[in-house]
């Protein structure tokens, strides 16, 4: 299992806007329409990555928790679906329905949005405030497949608490680790 670390986009960066296809609702969604009143978490995930599979159940619970706090969760898959059909739009829709995702699962066919966010791996997390300014980027927590640490979302939950209390997050923000995004070669 190859490991790729996330790039650490500078804090304060404005969230790049997008209009992407939501594989579940079969409609185009934009960041400006999806953003939450108190914040927005954009995460780059995919169906087949062992790192995402490892935390998937916790993501579902976390998304529900964040919704009650006015923080919207948006998932994006940017993998090359021609080489990785298990991460293609139809497979994304089936996966989201099976897992009962309460958040949109968007497909970045051109990979332009992953590039705009400087995303590198799955999972990759970006937390923005109500003004869509970046307040956190990095890992969900210290758990990884095989390290026997609990998937508790502690790093991201702390960042959300700081966001909602309008406090500066003084903890070290550690990069996420996961499978590299499957970039198109042509």
Architecture overview:
The protein has 186 residues and is an alpha+beta fold. The protein has one domain: Glutaredoxin. The chain has five helices and ten strands, in the order βββαβαβαβαβββαβ. A seven-stranded mixed beta sheet has the order 3-2-6-5-4-8-9. Helix 2 links the parallel strand 4 and strand 5. The radius of gyration is 15 Å and the shape is globular.
Name the features.
186 residues; alpha+beta; Glutaredoxin; 7-stranded mixed β-sheet; 5 helices; 23% strand
Question: How far apart are the first and last residues' alpha carbons, in Å?
Answer: 24 Å
The major sheet is characterized as: 7 strands, mixed
CATH topology: Glutaredoxin
Strand content: 15-25%
Set down the secondary structure blueprint:
Layout: E1 4-5, E2 19-22, E3 27-30, H1 31-34, E4 39-44, H2 50-68, E5 71-77, H3 89-99, E6 105-107, H4 112-117, E7 121-122, E8 124-128, E9 134-138, H5 154-164, E10 177-180
Parallel strand pairs: 4-5, 5-6
Antiparallel strand pairs: 1-10, 2-3, 2-6, 4-8, 7-10, 8-9
């Amino acid at each position: 299992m190859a490991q790729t670390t996330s790039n650490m986009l500078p804090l304060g960066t404005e969230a790049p806007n997008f209009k992407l296809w939501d594989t579940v609702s079969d409609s185009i969604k934009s960041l400006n329409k999806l953003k939450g009143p108190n914040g927005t978490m954009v995460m780059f995930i995919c169906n087949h990555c062992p790192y995402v599979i490892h935390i998937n159940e916790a993501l579902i619970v976390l998304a529900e928790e964040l919704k009650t706090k006015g923080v919207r969760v948006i998932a994006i898959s940017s993998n090359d679906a021609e080489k990785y059909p298990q991460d293609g739009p139809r497979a994304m829709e089936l996966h989201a329905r099976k897992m009962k995702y309460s958040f949109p699962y968007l497909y970045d066919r051109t990979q332009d949005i992953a590039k705009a966010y400087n995303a590198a791996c799955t999972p990759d997390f970006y937390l923005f405030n109500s003004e869509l300014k970046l307040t956190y980027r990095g890992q969900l927590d210290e758990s990884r497949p095989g390290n026997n640490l609990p998937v508790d979302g502690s790093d991201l939950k702390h960042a959300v608490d700081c966001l909602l209390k309008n406090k500066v997050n003084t903890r070290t923000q550690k990069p996420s680790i996961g499978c590299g995004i499957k970039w198109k070669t042509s």
